UniProtKB/TrEMBL annotation, chain A:
Membrane topology (UniProt): Multi-pass membrane protein
Matches recorded under PANTHER family: SLL0384 PROTEIN
One term under GO cellular component: ATP-binding cassette (ABC) transporter complex
Cited InterPro entries: ABC/ECF_trnsptr_transmembrane, ECF_CbiQ, ECF_transporter_component
Pfam families: CbiQ
GO biological process: cobalt ion transport
Annotated protein name in UniProt: Energy-coupling factor transporter transmembrane protein EcfT
From TrEMBL, chain B:
First-listed, main subcellular location of the protein, grouped into a coarse class: membrane
Location of the protein in the cell: Cell membrane
Gene Ontology CC annotations of this record: plasma membrane
Source species of the chain: Sporomusa termitida
Keywords of this entry: Cell membrane, Membrane, Transmembrane, Transmembrane helix, Transport
Superkingdom, taxonomy of origin: Bacteria
GO BP: transition metal ion transport
Protein name, entry field: Cobalt transport protein CbiM
Cleaved signal peptide residues: none
Annotated PDGLE domain residues: 225-346
Topology with respect to the bilayer: Multi-pass membrane protein
Residues annotated as transmembrane: 7-28, 40-60, 72-100, 106-127, 139-165, 185-203, 224-246, 325-342
Amino acid sequence: MLKIEANWLDLRYLDAISTQDTLIHRLNPCVKLITTLVFIIAVTSSSKYEITGLLPFFLFPAVLVALGNLPLSLILKRLLIIAPFIVFIGIFNPLIDHTPVINIGSLVISGGWISFVSLTIRLCLTVTTALILVATTGIDALCLALLKIGVPKIIVTQLLFMYRYIHVLVEEFVRCITAYSLRSFHGEGVQFRAWGSLLGQLLLRSIDRANRIYQAMLCRGFDGEVRLLRTRTLTGADIIYLIFWVTFFMVGRWFNLPQLLGNLLMGVYK
Amino acid sequence: MHMADALISPAVGGVMWAATAGLAAYAAKKVQSELDDRKVPLMGVLGAFVFAAQMINFSIPGTGSSGHLCGGLLLAILLGPQAAALTIASILTIQCLFFADGGLLALGANIFNMGFVACFIAYPLIYKPLTANSPSQGRIFFASLLAAVIGLQLGAFGVVLATLFSGISELPFSAFVLLMQPIHLAIGLVEGLITAVIVLFIMKESPEILQKTALGQPLGPIPVKNVFITLLIAAVLTSGALSWFASANPDGLEWSITNVTGAPELNVPAGIHSFFAEIQEKTAFLPGYNVKPPAEETAAASVGVNAVETEETAAWPAVDSGTSLAGLIGSVMTLALAYIIGKGLQRFAR
């Protein structure tokens, strides 16, 4: 399958998932956005050598995946696609930072390895929650939330328009690239001589399309404003969700929960 | 070139967000004031166009590899810098949300490095002057190439700086620069070539599209000045935020600085050491690992060479196995709990 087609299918899939009707999907989009932002700040602000203290944060994606009825495979697949570049940058930490920090028997672990593991955990946490946010909210509701927190209307409108057009245009792109690759014997990429005419043609068609859509919108009374129908109210569930998670993130950020739990268990054992 | 949340610190991410939000608000105001609501669907469609075009592989002549379009410069040429800035910002937002390309915290930095640099620096300062009066084909070609290369070099340098200031990667500045800049020279050349051939094609087939943009978006002196003021504010904010973080959080930045320079301060009065040691105690995030705090290091160093040795030997191998074990057990339990709660809720949700 073409790369563009695969990516498009992922986009469609995520879009479909975001229209489910679960406990999480029904929550107020603003609340979900704010909770996710607090989560990301809590995770990224912890010390670069933090490992144990980050683990409780896995509860957040775990609960959301479960209650939001999300396919774990989709999220993990994305994580695997993103990971190599970050891991490539991170792997320099063990190579450069040799400060010994812990001995397990005769094995000495350097600070570099600890910061590398910490970085990988952060990567998993931040990537999954960002995907979960859109998979449980959907782009329309998310744009509404952006509007509510004060993003200029034209930016939100542009985001919504573009998202709609992606679905319109990608179909055409896929057809065009498929036709090209069927008629060429050069393997994957588009040859240099065809760069300009291929993309240029697509661009002209896209602009024509924009004009047609614009005319159609004028016929239906478009005046430069996009009116979003969905209005959400703040319910009790939203407030509980927000307070619970923000408290949890604060506690998880300031106390090392696994350490405390371990101490407790060791104490019981003794 | 997408930065991820895992590599960025909240201070740097926040500063970049502030700079990006400021520029976006300015661009939004500018676009809204000179709108032509014809432009709204055009921005949307061109955004979708670049978004889709980014996923097409272009084989690079003479090499076995392939590259793709980034699109910031192309959008600036077609739409004018302000509208292009908003469009590229929305492309990066969709990528961040749906493909997890770059995190939410890093989104500000990504929009700045990959979009705004091309729209507010490369286009007005390089492409525009070079193609100002009666652009010939050669001029457009040369200007696109140069603008794309410089834009991407600046963007890549922005990534290097943001990563460096975040202090999460250990990569030293010189190594990171040597890693990023040459790669982005190649990427910039491809970007410039693609942009040039598309612009030349459009000029041949449907020149009125380009003329409209060139006429409709005069480059006054104000926008450029605003950009530089914003950059200046961003720089001041960054350094301010960083110094604040450095002093409040001794085990992050300062430690790595000590590691890089290899020279901890030797003759600082003991009062400061105990003060920092106290802070270190309070903010010890990794009690189980016995992470060596910089304050102890400097304290030990100031006592004298012999004392350093004894201190070192005393401090280093003495990992308290009790706390380490507790940490380990607690971690396993925490993960197990998260898993069980997740599974339980899944059943409950059905």
